[in-house]
Amino acid sequence: IMKVSIIIPIYNVKKYIIRCLKSVQNQTYTDIECILVDDKGQDDSMKVAKQFVEEYKGAVKFLLCEHHVNQGLSAARNTGLKKASGDYVFFLDSDDSLPDDSIERLVHEAEEYQYPEIVSGVTRHVLADDSYYDVKTGNFRCNEDVFRGYIHNSWNIIACNKLIRKDIFSKHKTFFLEGITHEDVLWSFEISTYIENIIGCPHVTYNYYLGDMNSISRSPLSQKRVLDSLIILQRKASYLSNQNIYYLLSQHIKDNIINLSYTLVRNRFPISFIKEVQRKATFILTENKIDKVKASVPFYRKVVFKFVNLLSF
Q1: How does pLDDT run across 50-98, given as a tens digit for each residue?
Q2: I want to staple 16 with a disulfide (CB 3.0 to 4.6 A). Which of 95, 101, 202, 268 is the partner?
Q3: Is residue 63 within 8 Å of residue 83, measured between CB atoms?
Q4: Rounded to the nearest 10 degrees, what angle do helices 183-192 and 73-83 cross at?
Q5: Which three-class secondary structure state does DSSP give residue 45?
Q6: What would the pLDDT profile of 249-288 be if each residue is shown by its tens digit?
Q7: Within a 10 A sphere around the Cβ of 268, how many other Cβ atoms?
Q8: Is 85 helix (H, G, I), strand (E, B) or coil?
Q9: What is the DSSP letter of 100?
């Protein structure tokens, strides 16, 4: 039987943590270890979680890890990974929850397809009024398909709701870059350069609650998030030496940079900040010799990018 390690970073989620932990407790699959990582929030969420674990009597094996100071989501996931002993790992955010048969459904698909690197379930996006919409992933059966799927946004790039074979981390050392937001964007990109299989499980295996606006991924764009996007684009550019993905990746980076400029103008960021971002973005394009690559974004966005470029130099 296959062991699954569920990793839950905990930070300021007192309102939601019991809902999350009960959904792990109720899993129909039994060979589960659940690693709770205390990332030193300011509320009582870890105290609540510890009490829950102390009173729990079921089959899930709960483990508690503790940071000395707040280190962020990437560091919390990496801490959980170091403790994980499962054949597969599964990331669960502490303000989300799982249907009772999630892990059982995902494990079934993993066995059916001879243990692929990733099995990705259907994610149910639950809105504040309890209405919802579902996002599913298809099957990608070779590395070229996986990479194209990443570029064209045709598989879900969040790390949650994926049964992930442990050797991605032990063999390839693809951990989460610490200190940045959008860590899933970079992590999914890096694994897309080498994994061969993503299998889509046709069942809803994750409840992603959009009503909580405290979550970074659900909050307004900040200057830090913009600068972190540039760090990610620079890191992506370091993969351009791989000739198999050169053109697609070049175009992807240029499209992202043009879209970023357009977003800054549209959201009325300070002109001094827009100029700073433009200079850094232009450096990424010229340093990597992709400034002449043809972008695939709408014409009006290219016009905005050129106009901002004139302002910045």
Answers
A1: 999 999 999 999 999 999 999 999 999 999 999 999 999 999 999 999 9
A2: 95
A3: yes
A4: 50
A5: helix
A6: 999 999 999 999 999 999 999 999 999 999 999 999 999 9
A7: 8
A8: coil
A9: T
148 vs 78, 90, 140, 151, 152, CA distance in Å? 27, 24, 9, 5, 6
DSSP SS3 for 112: helix
Phi, psi of 69 (to 5 degrees): -135, 165
Structure tokens at 74: 């990437």
CB within 8 Å of 11: residues ≥ 6 apart? 39, 40, 41, 45, 70, 73, 76, 94
> Phi and psi of 293, rounded to 5°?
-65, 140
C-alpha to C-alpha distance for 184 and 161, rounded to whole angstroms: 12
Residue among 276, 161, 183 at smallest CA distance from 229? 183
Q: What is the pTM of this model?
A: 0.95
The token pair at 243 is 């000739």
Determine how many CB atoms are found less than 10 A away from the CB of residue 142.
11
Q: Which 8-state DSSP code applies to residue 165?
A: E
Burial status of residue 152 (CB atoms within 10 A of its CB: 0-12, 13-18, 19 or more): exposed
Could you give the angle at the alpha carbon of 238 between the alpha carbons of 277 and 161, nearest 5°?
Answer: 85
- Name the residue among 244, 247, 245, 233 with its Cα closest to residue 281: 233
Distance of CA 96 to the CA centre of its chain: 14
Query: Measured between alpha carbons, how far is 239 from 246 in angstroms, rounded to an integer?
Result: 8
Which stretch of DSSP H or E encloses residue 214?
none
Which residues, other chains included, contact 45 with Cβ-Cβ below 8 Å and sequence gap of 6+? 10, 11, 12, 13, 14, 17, 94
Cβ count within 10 A of residue 246: 14
Band (pLDDT 50/70/90 cuts) for residue 225 is very high
Output the DSSP codes for 219-238.
S---HHHHHHHHHHHHHHHT
- Say if CB 250 and CB 290 are below 8 A apart: yes
Q: How many residues does the chain have?
A: 313
